[in-house]
Task: inverse folding
């Protein structure tokens, strides 16, 4: 049995989620993948996957062994990258996760530019509005907004975002520029249906506070609310990344900047590891240089 090939096959099955997909991704036949996995499980003396006619999933032993195998392959990638000194075109599969809207607006375009630059790379983008366990879900790296609580991850700064109040410039000329967040109590404010009837993220003299707001428009998605605000329907409170294109086009103007709370960090995160695959390091450098709109 070729142990290295068996390890590669095992990791590919875990990444692809099925024997058939692993065979296709590895340019092999399904029977060859099945034989490789069976031989590897026999050599280890444990089952790595639970298999039914409908799905395949890692066993507990498989989950534990998967990370060790990733490290073996990462070490091999690193060694080969050092020998080639960057001469070879980067190749392989990379899975990136990010919050849904930030991912749609900023991460997905950056990944698209990345694969256009490096045609041998294959990237999967997973957009989820929940905290993802990268190791358990087989993801290479993620984009996180806010303070990082998981000490098992390495975080590198990508930028910072603010919570801002905005309005259309012509709307401000007609209705006036608020001088204090309390002025919003008498204004028409565009709200999110799932949100509270107050707007937070204000501070004065070091103390945080909220302001009750109301208005004649509510949305359950952010982008229509931003568009309504840009069309002059009232004031809105959004993350700076959500309105950045509108600010740049001068369709929206930020107000009450002196009352904003400190910005939140945006980080690219990945599991603690002595060695990372060269393709992962390359992508981290790429996205840190590509997404520059939120550097402060």
Result:
């Amino acid at each position: 049995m070729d142990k290295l090939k068996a390890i590669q096959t095992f990791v590919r099955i875990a990444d692809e989620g099925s024997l058939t997909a692993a065979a296709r991704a590895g340019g092999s036949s399904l029977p060859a993948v099945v034989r490789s996995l069976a031989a590897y499980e026999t050599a280890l003396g444990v089952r790595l996957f639970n298999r039914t006619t409908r799905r395949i999933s890692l066993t507990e032993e498989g989950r534990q062994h998967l990370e060790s195998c990733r490290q073996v392959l990462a070490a091999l990638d690193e060694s080969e990258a050092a020998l080639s000194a960057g001469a070879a075109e980067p190749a392989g599969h990379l899975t990136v996760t990010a919050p849904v809207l930030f991912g749609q607006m900023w991460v997905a375009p950056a990944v698209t530019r990345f694969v256009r630059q490096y045609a041998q790379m294959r990237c999967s983008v997973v957009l989820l509005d929940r905290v993802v366990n990268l190791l358990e879900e087989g993801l290479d790296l993620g984009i996180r907004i806010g303070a990082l609580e998981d000490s098992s991850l390495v975080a590198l700064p990508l930028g910072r975002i603010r919570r801002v109040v905005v309005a259309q410039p012509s709307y401000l000329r007609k209705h006036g520029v608020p001088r204090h967040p309390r002025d919003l109590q008498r204004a028409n404010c565009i709200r999110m249906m799932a949100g509270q009837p107050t707007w937070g993220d204000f501070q004065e003299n070091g103390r945080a506070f909220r302001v009750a707001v109301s208005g004649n428009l509510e949305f359950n998605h952010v982008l229509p609310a931003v568009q309504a605000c840009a069309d002059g329907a009232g004031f809105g409170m959004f993350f700076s990344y959500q309105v950045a294109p509108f600010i740049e086009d001068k369709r929206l103007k930020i107000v009450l900047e002196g009352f904003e709370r400190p910005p939140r960090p945006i980080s690219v995160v990945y599991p603690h590891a002595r060695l990372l695959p060269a393709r992962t390091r390359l992508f981290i450098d790429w996205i840190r240089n590509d997404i520059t709109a939120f550097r402060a």
In short: The first strand starts at residue 49 and ends at 51. The two ends are 54 Å apart (CA to CA). The chain has a mean pLDDT of 88.
